[in-house]
Q: What sequence folds into this?
């Protein structure tokens, strides 16, 4: 997706449109004020490598005007520098300017002084009260000063603005009064200078949108739900025309239906859960497959923008007067960690690239190469597709398709059959020896039929029928498209890569002439660990246990991890064969006559050691940690702490620098922000608070209890992350 300063950007009921062409963007949320500014460039490049086109970001009011009249846009709060870095990395931005953000921030992002002022002067926030709007205007004006000259019309990255958040659902007014308030905020923003081609508002749960483009959401669980039991299955794994997720923000009250006409706006998402932020009382774990299956279901249901909240986790900044997380003490429904806003996101609190990152990247690869063509493929309901998520027996399926004229003049329907047999935390029925069929709108005409296969619990995939391969052929196959590698042979021919997700070899039929283009099949595991990368001006598909990230200078770098007491080489394989490598790699062998394997000449060693001393004091486990011999030349050192308890904290020189709510996962802390990359040593203090067996708390798996509680550190591991140019 390329948008220039003079591009015409708009939308119709189907999709966003840039310069007359349909576009299907990928969007991910990152909060600049929750991440160290010295690493923004590296993290934004990771987002781009993961398939993100647009960075969405809250400007959280309390982070910038905690003290009335004392605006702070310095350091990690420097919005202007962040937007400049977004541009440098070749990305676009949508500013979510509030004034209320939520975002699990203190008071939903409202400064304490604003709430006190409303009480002292007898007005209601989030209304058209003149004094409130005066305060909002000052905040908007200061935000605009940061963004001035960085809008798309100026050659900057900002293509859109979101007004308010969940307005009329989580607070605010409903009906005409609410609609008018949203219109007033929009008019104020435009008057101040927020001139962009796209204005959005969140549209779920009965929220009012003021005529702006509604953006939707969907989470695989609800850590804000006040129950501490297993909750009902999420409706976000069902194919449906319904865009609303009633469960979002249900801690603020049950959501209603949508308030806008779906026939007038495209199906765009801004808050697909890239993970889940845990609360004190509810701590579900969102996995990569949870996110991938939900995303594919939204794709099959007609979504034409995939936006993730969060895509990048972070850490709450230090407040000047108070801590800045959501708490029950401030009248909000949940208690959150003081610092950690990890979210189990694709990129986590310290920039870790984990399974969710790779799962989302795989879908983004397809969207980047084939999304524009997918945009005007209508959602077609399939016979027998269940509409309730507690139906675990019937096979869930959907079709998106459109009419296409083949090179020989034949008219056919072209599109994709989506199948989802995945429901988070529940077991779906197996469907043995099933012949999958794509049906037209009448529910009887068969558009495509695929070879029989077993569809077992946990499977999700989509198959193309009459999908173009170049200009002269179409393919129907029981494999899922990944991407297209342009000019793979240097003679202008393209390679289309698909993954198979079962043991059976894919079958395919081609109509027309491949004309030198190539069809390549790989496994799903290879696809998850692969990405399309431009190296020396040529496209390649690279597969590695590490991750390839192209830096802001256009140089691809391989990130990889070395565990403690381990020595290893950086290894990857590529198709087509590289003309040259830049990082000192040896060419090993061809793999299946397609991929060439490369191994670094240098080995990477991690001899770092951790000395842990523990002492229980008053029921709380206290520990001192000393890390030594950290390797030089590393990009990051991750401290992986296997603990069991309720919560844990880490201190440096008496100041808390990291915290954790126990979920059963290991607690990872990146050390470079605390000691740099060259220091070989690091020391800190830790505490673990006991988890008692009678605590009212939802955990997916409870730790073993001793004397009615769990409070222990089982071990500490040190993982060195390196990167090398390829």
A:
């Amino acid at each position: 997706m390329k948008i220039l300063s003079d591009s015409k950007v708009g939308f119709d009921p189907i999709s966003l449109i840039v310069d007359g062409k349909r576009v299907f963007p990928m969007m991910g949320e990152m909060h600049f004020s929750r991440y160290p500014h010295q690493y923004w460039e590296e993290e934004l490049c990771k987002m781009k490598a993961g398939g993100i086109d647009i960075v969405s970001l809250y400007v959280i009011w309390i982070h910038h005007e905690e003290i009335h009249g004392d605006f702070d846009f310095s350091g990690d709060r420097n919005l202007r520098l962040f937007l400049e870095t977004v541009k440098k990395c070749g990305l676009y931005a949508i500013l979510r300017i509030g004034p209320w953000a939520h975002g699990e921030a203190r008071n939903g992002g409202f400064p304490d002084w604003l709430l006190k002022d409303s009480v002292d002067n007898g007005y209601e926030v989030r209304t058209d009260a003149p004094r409130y709007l005066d305060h909002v205007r000052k905040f908007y004006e200061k935000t605009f000063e940061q963004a001035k000259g960085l809008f798309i019309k100026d050659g900057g990255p900002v293509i859109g603005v979101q007004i308010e958040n969940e307005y009329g659902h989580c607070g605010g007014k409903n009906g005409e009064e609410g609609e008018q308030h949203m219109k007033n905020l929009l008019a104020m923003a435009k008057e101040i200078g927020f001139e962009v081609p796209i204005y959005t508002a969140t549209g779920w749960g009965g929220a009012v949108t003021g005529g702006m483009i509604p953006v939707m959401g969907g989470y695989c669980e609800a850590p804000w739900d006040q129950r501490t039991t297993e909750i009902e299955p999420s409706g976000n794994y069902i194919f449906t025309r319904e865009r609303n997720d009633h469960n979002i923000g249900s801690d603020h009250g049950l959501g209603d239906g949508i308030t806008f006409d779906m026939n007038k706006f495209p199906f765009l998402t801004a808050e697909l859960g890239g993970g889940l932020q845990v609360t004190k009382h509810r701590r579900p774990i969102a996995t990569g497959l949870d996110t991938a299956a939900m995303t594919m279901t939204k794709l099959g249901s007609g979504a034409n923008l995939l936006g993730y909240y969060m895509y990048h986790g972070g850490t709450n900044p230090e407040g000047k007067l108070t801590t800045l997380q959501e708490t029950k003490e401030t009248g909000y429904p949940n208690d959150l960690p003081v610092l950690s806003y990890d979210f189990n996101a694709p990129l986590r609190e310290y920039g870790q690239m984990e399974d969710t990152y790779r799962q989302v990247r795989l879908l983004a690869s397809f969207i980047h190469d084939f999304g524009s063509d997918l945009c005007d493929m209508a959602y077609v309901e399939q016979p027998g597709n269940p509409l309730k998520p507690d139906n675990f027996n019937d096979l869930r399926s959907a079709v998106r398709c459109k009419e296409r004229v083949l090179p020989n003049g034949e008219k056919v329907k072209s599109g994709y059959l989506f199948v989802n047999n995945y429901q988070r935390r529940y077991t779906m029925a197996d469907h043995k020896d099933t012949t999958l069929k794509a049906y037209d709108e009448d529910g009887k005409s068969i558009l495509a039929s695929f070879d029989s296969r077993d569809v077992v619990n946990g499977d999700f995939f989509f198959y193309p029928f009459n999908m173009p391969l170049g200009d002269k052929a179409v393919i129907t196959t029981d494999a899922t498209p990944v991407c297209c590698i342009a000019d793979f042979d240097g003679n202008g021919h393209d390679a289309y890569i698909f993954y198979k997700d079962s043991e059976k070899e894919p079958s395919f039929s081609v109509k027309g002439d491949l004309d030198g283009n190539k069809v390549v099949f790989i496994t799903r595991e290879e696809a998850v660990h692969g990405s399309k990368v431009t190296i020396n001006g040529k496209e390649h598909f690279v597969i590695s246990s590490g991750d390839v990230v192209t830096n802001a200078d256009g140089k691809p770098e391989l990130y990889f991890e070395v565990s403690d007491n381990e020595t290893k080489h950086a290894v990857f394989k590529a198709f087509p064969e590289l003309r040259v490598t830049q990082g000192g790699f040896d060419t090993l062998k061809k793999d299946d006559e397609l991929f060439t394997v490369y191994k670094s000449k240098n080995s990477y060693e991690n001899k770092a050691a951790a000395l842990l001393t523990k002492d229980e004091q008053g029921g709380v486990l206290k520990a001192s940690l000393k890390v030594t011999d950290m390797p030089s030349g590393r990009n990051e050192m991750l401290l992986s702490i296997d603990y069991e308890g309720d919560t844990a904290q880490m201190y440096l020189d008496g100041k808390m620098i990291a915290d954790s709510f126990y979920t059963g996962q290991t607690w990872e802390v990146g050390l470079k922000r605390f000691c740099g990359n060259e220091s070989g040593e690091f020391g800190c203090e830790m505490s673990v608070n006991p988890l008692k067996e009678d605590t009212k708390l939802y955990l997916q798996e409870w730790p073993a209890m001793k004397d009615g509680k769990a409070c222990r550190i089982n071990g500490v591991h040190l993982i060195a992350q390196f990167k090398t140019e390829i």
Notes: The domain at 377-528 is CATH 2.102.20 (beta-galactosidase, domain 2). The chain has four domains: 9-371, 377-528, 534-605, 609-721.
